[in-house]
């Protein structure tokens, strides 16, 4: 068998075999991807502290502070109470990585319609306390919302009427899960830009949103595939969500699901896949909206649909309460 003559000092390698330097670079990229996946999964539930944002006073709205201490682990949740003409109250849960300042437009919309509004910073967000927890995040966030609802129910100014929830993105599944945790039924839940029917697949897509920000060696190939896989697995492990979607059979709470036709974060099919579990739920795909901004891009229809849905839900809940009182 003939062999090619060698030039002095030349080293021949088998075709396809990587050089030690290339192999080291590949291993380094994989390690970096794994570390970043773990870091970003943790930051999903523990985002960096944000600067204080605008408040209802910037929109000329009345506001007073409300502080809620969680029953599970004594984390302090910072909230705004924006009293309206009453009697009903809407609790707003912002999206992951945001703060209650991000829902000022919705606060103004609901206040103008006459409703009391309570908006709070989720744990590890905004002005609320921070934890150092790595697990059971689903239970923690759901318990927090239950504590906020209990505090609102006890409030003499805003707790006398019916209550509804508006959740955005991450908070939409919390808003559904909490319904089995509260004694008095919630009149309505509006799920805006969420939740996801396949949470693990949705998290893999969410990981892709960071792709352009990753170091170059992690953006492609095996390193990126590992990053995406680990981000989803670690995020799911930390979330520890169970019984999804929740069984809400027998509850009188009315549901509305809103998707954005242009949403690059959570696909319409993911949201409507959850809505399919609740045949009586209302559903709407805002044609111009992206993620959590249907009020901005489809303002007139959003106002008509959401306010109409809440009005009908409050009326139905009030009628049920009157009927229950009538029958002792």
TrEMBL record:
Biased composition annotated in UniProt, kind: Basic residues: 11-20
UniProt similarity note: Belongs to the AB hydrolase superfamily. FUS2 hydrolase family.
Keywords, comma-separated and alphabetical: Hydrolase, Signal
Sequence ranges assigned to domain AB hydrolase-1 in this UniProt record: 90-293
Annotated region (Disordered), positions in chain: 1-20
Pfam families: Abhydrolase_6
Signal sequence interval, chain numbering: 1-37
GO molecular function: hydrolase activity
SUPFAM superfamilies: alpha/beta-Hydrolases
Domain of life of the organism encoding this protein: Bacteria
Protein name per Swiss-Prot or TrEMBL: Alpha/beta hydrolase
Origin species: Streptomyces katrae
